[in-house]
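F.,

This is the one I mentioned.
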């Protein structure tokens, strides 16, 4: 193949199907990419830029271009092209999430431990949500602070409240408290961190990427899908793993190695997340669509006045 004509932005897999998106997200959420240096990532970005400009360096192979695009998609924001902070990248969800979730599930019995690990988790989530927002809608430091405090307070109140309420409940119910807190906080953290999109709308374009205006309804749809994806990402590990741990902790050999229960849960959460991070990201297309008829009346009428019935759908980046 003549790589000088290679379309590096063409989807490698069909993004209209779940399996196509799953292969795509398995590729870009590969935790090994989080180990690469900034210089390696910048080199990949330069190669992607060269390919877009039609000046691929001599000797470059198609596989090298695919790998460069993988690194670019994993580390650079799709709206701004800027390198994202390491902790906020989806490729860091497995190592970061497995450590935090594992210890949340292990240390759920005492209020101080619940408070500490929920605070750590919401700090992590706030950074991930900010990093993966739709960057076309700026957010001020004050709004970031309010979002962070609100989500963290919600998570702590839910976790501590349920922890106290379930003192006399079956042990398994108490083990599920961290998931209830995480799910509740996600419903607050993500919308709050991306409040500007809800208040002012996000940019919507036609199928040829021509900007058509800003839509609040599109923002609500995109953010709702992200909330569902994040809860789905956490659910298997935080619901199934407590059942497994409760059963295996009864064995004598597990009683003798209690000091390893925490690290064991961390590793088991990692196994869940390796599959659930790409699977959850794949639930909905990254390039989200909405029928023009479902937009706000003002924007809908504006589009129809300019294009008639020629534009049936608008598209936008829902974020991750």
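My design for it:
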């Amino acid at each position: 193949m003549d790589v000088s004509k290679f379309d590096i932005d063409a989807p490698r897999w069909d993004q209209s199907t779940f399996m196509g998106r799953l292969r795509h997200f398995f590729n870009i959420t590969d935790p090994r990419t989080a180990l690469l240096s900034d210089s390696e990532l910048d080199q990949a970005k330069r190669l992607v830029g060269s390919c877009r400009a039609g000046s691929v360096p001599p000797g470059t192979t198609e596989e090298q271009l695919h790998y460069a695009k993988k690194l670019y998609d994993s580390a650079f924001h799709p709206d701004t092209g800027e390198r994202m902070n390491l902790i906020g990248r989806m490729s860091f969800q497995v190592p970061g999430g497995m450590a935090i979730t594992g210890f949340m599930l292990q240390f759920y019995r005492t209020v101080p431990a619940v408070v500490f690990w929920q605070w750590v988790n919401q700090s992590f989530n706030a950074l991930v949500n900010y990093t993966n927002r739709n960057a076309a809608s700026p957010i001020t430091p004050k709004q970031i602070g309010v979002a962070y405090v609100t989500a963290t307070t919600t998570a702590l109140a839910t976790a501590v409240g349920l922890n106290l309420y379930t003192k006399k409940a079956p042990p398994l119910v108490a083990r599920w408290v961290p998931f209830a807190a995480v799910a509740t906080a996600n419903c607050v953290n993500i919308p709050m961190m991306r409040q500007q999109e809800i208040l002012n709308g996000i940019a919507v374009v036609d199928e040829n990427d021509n900007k058509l205006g800003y839509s609040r309804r599109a923002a609500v749809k995109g953010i709702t899908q992200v909330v569902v994806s994040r809860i789905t990402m956490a659910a298997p590990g935080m619901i199934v793993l407590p059942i497994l741990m409760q059963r295996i902790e009864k064995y004598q050999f597990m009683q003798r190695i209690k000091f390893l229960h925490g690290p064991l849960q961390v590793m088991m959460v990692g196994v869940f997340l390796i599959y659930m991070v790409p699977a959850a990201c794949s639930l909905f297309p990254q390039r989200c669509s909405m029928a023009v008829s479902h937009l706000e009346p003002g924007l809908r009428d504006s589009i129809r006045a300019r294009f008639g019935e020629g534009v049936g759908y608008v598209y936008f980046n829902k974020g991750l």
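The mean pLDDT is 83.

Talk soon.
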